[in-house]
Amino acid sequence: MKPAVKFIHTADLHLGSRIKINTNNDELDKNMLNAVYNSFEKIIDYAIEYKIDFLIISGDIFDSESRSVKATRFFVNQCERLKQNDINVYLINGNHDPYKNEGELFNLPTNVYICDTEDVSTFEVYKDDKLIARILGQSYRAKSENRKMYKYYTTNDQDVYNIGILHTQLDPHNDNYVPITKSDLLSNTNIDYWALGHIHNNKVINDKNPFIVYPGIPQGRDIGEDGKKGFYLVQLKPNKSKLKFIETYDYEYRRIKINLSNINDTNLTEFNYFLEEKLDEFYKKVSKDIKGYIIRIILTGRTKMYEIFEEQENDIIEDTLENLRDKYNKKTPLLWVNKIENRSTKSIENIDEIIKEDPFINDFIEFMNRYKTNDKKKSKLKNNMGKIWNAKVDNEDIDPKEFQIDDQTFQELLSQVKKDIINEFIERREL
Ligand SMILES: [Mn+2]
Questions:
Q1: Could you tell me if 242 and 267 lie in one domain?
Q2: How far is the CA of 151 from the centre of ligand 1 (A)?
Q3: What is the model's pTM?
Q4: Domain holding 99: CATH number?
Q5: φ, ψ (nearest 5 deg) of residue 307
Q6: Of 203, 222, 247, at which residue does a domain stop?
Q7: Which residues neighbour ligand 1 (ion) by CB within 5 Å?
Q8: What's the gap in Å between 166 CA and the centre of ligand 1?
Q9: How far is the CA of 336 from the centre of ligand 1 (A)?
């Protein structure tokens, strides 16, 4: 019987990067800078408290290829804490922190093992002089990596759990981040647990042996990394393996959709009051155990407000943002309204009936919905948009072929386009 192992799987620490929000408040700004570091420190605290056997980091330890002195120093110090507790770290380099031939800026403690770039590295893990696991991995040698190295993660011994560390998008059409599929990984029967990195949301792709798991980033840094963030505590035991997601973030990004269709005047006092009511409702429901929530408000619906948005949208948004920040930024946990996105549109009388009775608009809606649900159509559209889209991202690995847009924003854009075109149809009909 294979010996049981207990380890932490994390990835995409992106040390050296920070949460970006618009603020002039120094203390808040400092908290935003520290959050990414805090999240890694929490992982180390947990590792020591729960006496794990080892720590796995599946790439992108550092945010930048050139490394940051502060980030490297911090990483070294945290690994040193693990060393004092006899816990080893096994890691690969990803697209953000490809392998440095000349070594890291500081010497890493001797409990840190980095996988090689040219071949698969295999490390044996011992506990009380007994072999308890084997760890296989290969690092990126550059910012993009098209080798399908998963094939070479082989071992002729299945007496212990074999864990494969790999940084991949799991997209066979993307040559930049190890172009492979889930079935590819399943086809390699040497590996019991695929410890993946690269995708910043936590996802369990296969929940039984061989496990395929993305832990996600430990602290979200922008709205594309919204929701709860953390790492996996993994226990592999014959017939009793289990995964536990543990949260590590200080700040959580959230989208709040607010439908304005019941607002039937153009009074800004009413408008602000309405938004405050919605924010209060949100705040009442959320956990108070973290430092704060960074909010994007998305205004939706067909509304009378459109009449003043049409002329003064920017002024209204700016004033509302300021008002909401004043009202909520003293709370603990913090509620920070980082952005208001206006996706509402004009109200048209009897719109539902008009749409229902117009076969042309109905066809159009059906056509647009195909882009929402059909993955092939979706990725084709994103790729085409990518060629003309000059994405603003903090990453170094901007690839013009890749449209840097998260799915939710994509869906929001689509539905706004749909509404605008329907408005246009209806107006022209009336002429
Ligand atoms: Mn990453």
A1: no
A2: 22
A3: 0.89
A4: 3.60.21.10
A5: -60, -35
A6: 247
A7: 12, 60
A8: 12
A9: 25
